[in-house]
Amino acid sequence: MKKYAVEVLFMSACAGMFLPVFAWGETDVNIDNPLAECVDIHPVHRQEMDNLTILKTTVTLKKSTGECGCFSTLINYTSLLAQDVEGYGRGSAYSLQEGNISLAKMQGRYPFSFVLSVDNQSVRDQKLALMIRCTPPL
Fold first, then answer.
1. Quick one: signal sequence residues (predicted)?
2. How large a percentage of the chain has pLDDT more than 70?
3. In angstroms, rounded to a whole number, what is the distance separating the alpha carbons of residues 21 and 44?
4. Helix (H/G/I), strand (E/B), else coil: 13
5. Where are the beta strands (DSSP E) in the chain?
6. How far apart are CA 82 and CA 46, in angstroms?
7. How far apart are CA 100 and CA 69, in angstroms?
8. How confident is the model at residue 5 (pLDDT cuts 50, 70, 90)?
9. What contacts 81, CB < 8 A, 6 or more positions away?
10. Which residues pair with 25 in a beta bridge?
């Protein structure tokens, strides 16, 4: 009986280690991506590493971002609390992290990790959002 319980526990632990990697779209991060015709972003899983909250994704480049209205190969991302998406750009939302990603030398499909927050304690039980936009002209 003990041997069976240990085997079940081991199998459950192993399944738990691999489940997030294969749980496409099963994250608690909403992705707002008006550039989806050009750049498709599929969430793999949200992960905490040290003090960081990271969203592991797979990015697929479908066509030039210029065809989606961008003026460069840079795209901008902003992470924020999901409840703040409506107020973003009107001064009533708090962005957690922002950055630019260069797509110039990337083609096809590749893994990409977005840093959503540098203080995972403040967002641990929060639903987050990732907004993708064209980078404004410099």
1. 1-23
2. 75
3. 6
4. helix
5. 29-32, 39-49, 52-61, 74-81, 95-102, 109-117, 128-134
6. 14
7. 16
8. very low
9. 93, 94, 96, 123, 126, 127, 128, 129
10. none
Tokens of 44: 């793999």
| Sign, Cα dihedral of 118, 99, 112, 59 | positive
Measured between alpha carbons, how far is 98 from 77 in angstroms, rounded to an integer?
6
The answer, as to whether pTM is greater than 0.85, is no
**Tens digit of each residue's pLDDT (9 = 90 or more) over 81-108:** 887 776 666 665 678 999 999 988 888 8
- Structure tokens belonging to residue 131: 């907004």
pLDDT grade for 16, boundaries at 50, 70 and 90: very low
List the domain boundaries for the chain. Answer: 24-134
Q: Which CATH architecture has domain 24-134?
A: Sandwich (2.60)
Instruction: Find how far residue 21's CA is from the centre of its chain.
Output: 13
The length of the chain, given as a count of residues:
138
Q: Are 55 and 113 in contact (CB under 8 A)?
A: yes
Measured between alpha carbons, how far is 32 from 72 in angstroms, rounded to an integer?
20
Phi and psi angles of residue 102, each rounded to the nearest 5 degrees, phi first: -90, 125
